[in-house]
Write the structure tokens for this entry.
Amino acid sequence: MSDLADAFAAAAMLIWSLDQDLVGIVLLSLRVTLTAMAIAAVIGLPLGGALAVFRFPGRSAILITINALMGLPPVVVGLIVYLVLSRAGPLGALGLLFTPAAMILAQAVLITPIIAALSCQTISGLWEEYREQLQSFAARRGDALATLLWEGRIALLTALLAGFGRASAEVGAVMIVGGNIDHVTRVMTTTIALETSKGNLSLALGLGIILISLAMGVAGGTYALKLAAERQRSA
Amino acid sequence: MMRWKLVQRPNRAIHARARLSLHNILNRVHFRHKQDVPSVCASAPGAWAARVAATLALAIGMIGVLVGASPAWAEERFITVASTTSTQNSGLFDKILPAFTAASGIEVRVVAVGTGQAIRLAERGDADALLVHHKPSEEKFVADGFGVRRFDVMYNDFVIVGPAADPAGIRGLNDAPAALARIAAAGQPFASRADDSGTHKLELELWKKAGVDVKAASGTWYRETGSGMGATLNTASGLDAYAITDRGTWLSFNNKGTLAIMVEGDKALFNQYGVILVNPARHQHVKAKDGQAFVDWLISAPGQAAINAYTINGEPLFFANAGKLGS
């Protein structure tokens, strides 16, 4: 029990003192994960919606693949991105390995399938409901897709949140492609792994508590956004 | 692009949130029409397309800014050094690198992994310099043309740690292979790195000298953690197992539990660190000048003094010995 108490004390101390290193680490974590989420959303939302609305050969195969890729292990993503960005790899000339951009890329690869699969689910429900109506307007499918994405934007926030959660929690991919370099690519999860390996268990858990608090903040913010949107409509 | 107004079908259960949204948009549209106020929702198709385009542009612009933005503290001039977890976990880099950066204006970015992985990183050209601790592997790295030249930097030693109760009865021995043989004979748990690190390579050499076939014992008393030094010490601490660790990591490790040093002082436990500049002839992008500056500083008087000055509880973790053992 005292270990847990120590962890909360460590977390409180870190937050209270507004440790400069910690602030940097938290900001970098947010920057990497939010950017990865934005990229994954730009790709995943239209992709998921298209899979819900369009019918074409190979659609089932793509759906199955995307659903399977929801369970992509972060280490595998990290390894693939590492091999691609390594100096000896195809994109090695860009010199992106061990930079935040590499971490963003890895997390985007990791969560695009999640956002695509979940938004496909959401849009499928809407499409089933409004299909006849949209067709009665002689809407082209592309326009129908755009309409449904817009109408379902609040429900789609959940898909984005799932992606954010996955990206902010993973350590395997960013450890490999970022290298956990102090002040450059060190984020919350890799710091926790490092402090654990130093045997600073309370500090590691304290950082974990801060990470969970951040996730709570993001989830709470999303919830408030949804609530506000609903209130505005029923007002 | 056209946007279509959707009318709720009352006879079917639909997504609650969507229903709310559509219903109210329609109400608003209706209301606005009655008031003869132009409605955003019912605006011309062109306006909607513009809105989508604007949203997309905003999103892409934001991504661009976020990807491109670099933290204020990151210096333009930097080198990447592949090194071992022992140098990082012991806190040595945090202590000595600021002095080098202050003197040279070169930031050092350390990727700390096991020696085996560090060497493979450097072979692929993903680092400018290599600071590791397994001399045979380092010499092979240079001989194969991946590195320019190897320099001794510093040394410390490995120790065998174990539970204070010492069920294998090895405390105080100064013969490492003999101690390992006793652990094996007693069948007491031993936590191995098993990650191709410098420490792991040395451990395997010691088992060989002790005449113990650890492969056969894997999964019984011989536990292969496949992880870094700190993680392996955490495992040993939890299992009350024996383990081999470098002294630097051991001194700075904060979760010792009942673990204590059992065996030390055997010549076979000597731990030499070397530094190598990655060969720019092999990888053109290697920052040879700045990397060489780092190597030169490490083996210079100020660098060596900085290494010796790092102590924990008055005990030095590394002993600088550049140019003393030759190479």
Observations:
- The mean pLDDT of chain A is 91.
- Residues 192 and 208 of chain A are 7 Å apart (CA to CA).
- The domain at 2-234 of chain A is CATH 1.10.3720.10 (MetI-like fold).
